[in-house]
Amino acid sequence: AFVGSVRCVQETDFETFQLKDMYTDPSTGITHILFLPSVPSAIMYWQVDSDRKVISKHEFRDEQLFGYFSGRIIGAGNGKDFYATVIGLRDPSYEDQFFTESHDGGKTWTTLARVPREDMEDLRDRNGDSLLVLPESGRILIFYQIRGKPCETTPENDKLAYVTRPPGSNIFTKEKIIAEFPKYHQQMPTVTATYTVYNGKSMVHVFWGNKNSSSQPVFHMSTGDNGATWNGPKVISGSDLYIGEFMITATSNPKISSSLIGTYAVVPPNKLKLIHSKDNGATFEKMEGSQRRQIVFPKYYRMNAMEICGTTQKPKLFMLSQTQESWVEYAIWDVNTMTAQRLPNPFDDVIKAVGVKLTCYNKGNQIIVTGLVPVQLDDGKLHMLIAQDTIDPVSYTHLRAHETREDLVCRLLLEKKKQYQINS
After folding, report:
1. Angstrom distances, CA of residue 225 to CA of 5, 144, 201, 204, 228
2. Which listed site, 51, 58, 154, 334, has its alpha carbon 20 to 30 Å from 23?
């Protein structure tokens, strides 16, 4: 049941920026945000507390880098240990992978440096990374693409690879290549990694999409023995042609559900599709656009963000999506039945979204959902519209959230700005 929602605008000095990643620590309620400003001289890192206030700002920067492309951030869930990766240009022609970590809640970070590995071969031209931490062991994994060198006759294959840092170590293992695929038109796959707990052991899953000359499949691989053996790769999207600019996502919450859920958009008919696995990735059910339970997603979606929270009896999938028309849709799914319902949308009046991010965590008997959407206001700057929903996964009584004076003033300020923009 929907309990209530509050939202606020966090102003920035940037005319534009790109959201890269977001993580909410369940032990503190603090949200950690990575974004790339209009002048990409650094990756910006902000902390936002449970009252939606920016409490800390930091920059991930290396003076030897020519530019920055992406960033990933993740935490161990204990409020102290956080890890981040950054893709940047060390050389004007090649992309490099960098790593930093914090063990005091994000107050201080280690110097941004190339991923320290046992084999110190050239790490250039790695991109499309995904960062994963296994909380049971503290093992860190970084998945990424190695772009094959173009040739006049036959280009090199692209490769999917990863490195891992064992618990108690400061050095990542040697690079391991787990898949190869043909290179076409310099297209990059989107890499997403997650994990489930199976028979008391963590199983790591990696998804990626690769555009080639005839199809655009979505692949899946998994391992349950720390990478000694891998299952796959296998195509889980059938004959669908997914839209290359759409971000493939997958999510699971081992404490709540052993389900794996992924999303991708297809052409035609320009609709979002879901893939759902209840058997730890052995098989996937594809949610067709013609099914009634898919009706909440009738449009072409460009970006998507989702997380699983709730109870083991009633796991819920929260989804925030940006349409081709730059509107924002918000829905909740019952993971057991994969049926969907709309929620009151705190971003319903946003008509020019330029990205979406969402996280959720359990707080007592309730679920706290945090959504982040960049919006352009009348001052010509791009600001962060942050909304927090409170959901009761057990109760079916619809209640009104109690707004504090600060919440009310913040909401009215936003409405005043939007009304001024409309009147102008």
Report:
1. 42, 20, 9, 9, 6
2. 334
pLDDT digits 0-9 by tens, 79-101: 999 999 988 877 666 777 889 99
Whether 318 contacts 306, CB under 8 Å: yes
Within 10 angstroms of residue 370's Cβ, the number of other Cβ atoms is 24
Report the predicted TM-score, pTM, of the whole model to 2 decimal places. Answer: 0.83
Kindly tell me the sign of the dihedral angle through the C-alpha atoms of 353, 357, 362, 364.
Answer: negative
Find out whether the peptide bond into 298 is cis, omega within 30 degrees of 0. no
Query: Is residue 422 pLDDT above 60, yes or no?
Result: no
Q: State both tokens at 315.
A: 């796991």
Say if strands 382-391 and 2-10 run parallel, antiparallel, or are unpaired.
antiparallel
What is the pLDDT, as a whole number, of residue 65?
Answer: 78
CA distance 331 to 344: 9
The alpha carbon dihedral of 224, 227, 228, 233 has a sign of positive
Helix (H) or strand (E) holding 368: strand 366-376
What is the helix (H) or strand (E) element at residue 239, kind and residue range?
Answer: none
Short-list 253, 238, 383, CA closest to 307: 253
Burial 177-203 (b: 16+ CB within 10 A, else e): ebbebebeeeebbbbbbbbbbeeeebb
